[in-house]
Amino acid sequence: MRTAIKTFLLLLLPLLFSCSNNEVTCRYELIAHSGGAIDGNIYTNSREAMEQAADKGYRFIELDLAMTADSVLVAAYSWEQFNEISGYACKRDTAPTLQEFLSRRIYGRYTPITADDICAFFLANKNLTLVTDKISDADVLERYFAPIKSRMMVEAFTHSDYITLQGRGFGKVLYSCLATDIDETLLKHLLLHRLFGDKIETLALHTSAVDYPAFKIIDALCDYRVALFTINDTTEIPEALKKRIDYIYTDSLGLQ
Fold first, then answer.
1. What is the per-residue pLDDT across 156-213, written as a single tens digit (0 to 9) for each?
2. Per-residue b/e over 145-158, b at no fewer than 16 CB within 10 Å?
3. What is the Cα–Cα distance from 200 to 190, expressed in whole angstroms?
4. Hey, what domains does the chain have and what are their CATH numbers?
5. 101-112 pLDDT, tens per residue?
6. Which of 36, 37, 215, 256 can pair with 32 through a Cys bridge, CB separation 3.0 to 4.6 Å?
7. Nearest Cα to 61, choosing from 156, 148, 190, 175?
8. Rounded CA gap, 136 and 208, in Å?
9. Which one, of 201, 199, 219, 200, lies nearest residue 209 by Cα?
10. Which H/E stretch holds residue 219?
């Protein structure tokens, strides 16, 4: 009996000490946020950032999606931000046409990319997973990314989108803490998930989520995993979430 207990404890020790207070060594995947930082610039969603992230060994690359004025899917954090970093701040949040979008250079040197560019890049790099943000309409995403959807991780912004994306065969769906229906969804599909068949498995959470009373209750009662954003220093990771993290969005955090 004592031998069995001793063996069990020896097997358990690596798990108990896999995380420390000073530096997180838990197993998680890093996601290059908005393509990842390039030359100190973040949120570029540019070809150069995407290619650099792949060269650095990131297996997960996140890109923000937006529709141009003529309804073409491209990569941009927001139109206000894109206009500012491409020299057209006077346009404020006005969406450019596809031609205008492609004619610009981000910070005067980086190349804007379309959904077709993104799909082609991931088709050519089969070891990579595309993570998307801002748009979770399954029809739109499938129209542009059907050849790679099994290698996509999509952030959903309504529970309806979450269920639809899962049913369409996308690789993994994250339920966003920024979703408009999050309070209702958390209560129904996390806190009471045993009563529902469509359990939410992974939440895309901001670090501040640990301060929300609802999450404290859910954390105590439910089993869920986390994709945490945006971390550039492992000391920023909330202690309460360390046990749940599978993914970390980062601009510049080095690979483990």
1. 999 889 999 999 999 999 999 888 777 777 777 766 665 555 678 899 999 887 787 7
2. beebbebbbbbbbb
3. 6
4. 28-250 (3.20.20.190)
5. 999 999 999 999
6. 36
7. 148
8. 23
9. 219
10. helix 213-221
Tokens 């073409």 — which residue?
72
3-state DSSP assignment of residue 241:
helix
Report d(CA 196, CA 85) in Å as an integer: 45
* pLDDT tens by residue, 1-14: 445 434 433 333 34
Reading the block at residue 223, the tokens are: 């089993």
The answer for residues whose C-beta is within 8 angstroms of residue 108's C-beta and 6 or more apart is 87
Q: CB under 8 Å to 58, separation ≥6 — which residues? A: 30, 31, 32, 36, 128, 255
Query: Looking at this protein, which amino acid is placed at residue 10?
Result: L
Whether pLDDT at 90 is above 50: yes
33-37, long-range: CB < 8 A, 24+ apart: 33/62, 33/229, 33/230, 33/249, 33/250, 33/251, 34/62, 34/63, 34/64, 34/77, 34/251, 35/61, 35/62, 35/63, 35/75, 36/61, 36/250, 36/251, 36/252, 37/251, 37/252
Measuring CA to CA, which residue among 19, 20, 18, 53 is closest to residue 35?
Answer: 53
